[in-house]
Design brief:
With 227 residues, the protein is of the alpha/beta class. It has nine helices and eight strands. The longest helix has 20 residues. The two termini are 27 Å apart.
Length: 227
């Protein structure tokens, strides 16, 4: 058994326990292996252990990995998006978790190859009381969601949030609950959404209790990143 296999078994047990407490099926939670700064061999080991979803923050690093890794892998872009990077993201990724404005959404739509299938997307929500952080302010969410719904070649699947660092767990859980409620608001407005990308190694239990469907796990799966 490899170290990654052992780490994955521990993560899966944590997810099962949290899902049981929440009255959910643990199969409703996907582990997104955050593979930034991780070597190719580690990603291959994670695939051998049964994972297929990998999240990358840095485009150039990700493109090198996508070329080398088995095409069965599903690549998620989870970093900040610059306008000059949208074409490569639209052409090479299956998911994008970090849309925060209309311009980026429109560029991803226009640059998505017609034969690639719909690009699955999440809108990143700005944390409460954090105007300086990434994500869209809540009062602009519904307008952006309507824009994405009308764009070709991309599909809005849900919301992503990254709470502020060094918060108490109760505050983090409130942030997750707020995001879950916003997803419910989108559904009430007629959006066909089903995804909450929230929770990382330290707070995945709180995220699952509040309905997370994708948890983004890096260090607790792969170990420390190379700097």
């Amino acid at each position: 058994m490899t170290r990654i296999t052992e780490q994955l078994a521990g993560l899966q047990e944590r997810i099962r326990d949290a899902a049981d407490l929440a009255g959910r099926n643990n199969d409703s939670v996907t582990i997104l292996a955050v593979s930034k700064k991780q070597p190719i061999d580690s990603i291959r080991a994670a695939m051998t252990a049964g994972l297929k979803d990998f999240g990358e923050n840095y485009l150039q690093e990700a493109l090198q990995k996508i070329v080398e890794i088995d095409p069965v892998a599903c690549w998620h872009f989870i970093g900040a998006i610059q306008s000059n990077k949208t074409r490569a993201i639209a052409e090479n990724f299956t998911w994008v978790h970090t849309i925060e404005n209309r311009r980026i959404a429109e560029r991803l739509s226009a640059q998505r190859p017609t034969d690639a299938g719909e690009l699955q997307t999440c809108i990143q929500i700005q944390p409460a009381n954090a105007d300086h952080r990434g994500g869209i302010p809540v009062d602009q969410l519904f307008e952006l969601a309507d824009v994405i719904r009308d764009l070709p070649r991309i599909r809005l699947r849900g919301l992503m949030v990254m709470p502020l660092p060094n918060q108490a767990m109760a505050e983090i859980r409130r942030e997750f609950a707020r995001t879950r409620e916003l997803l419910g608001d989108l559904i009430q407005r007629g959006h066909d959404v089903d995804t909450l990308s929230m929770g990382m190694s330290a707070d995945l239990e709180a995220a699952i209790m509040e309905g997370s469907t994708i948890v983004r796990i890096g260090t607790d799966l792969f170990g420390p990143r190379a700097e």
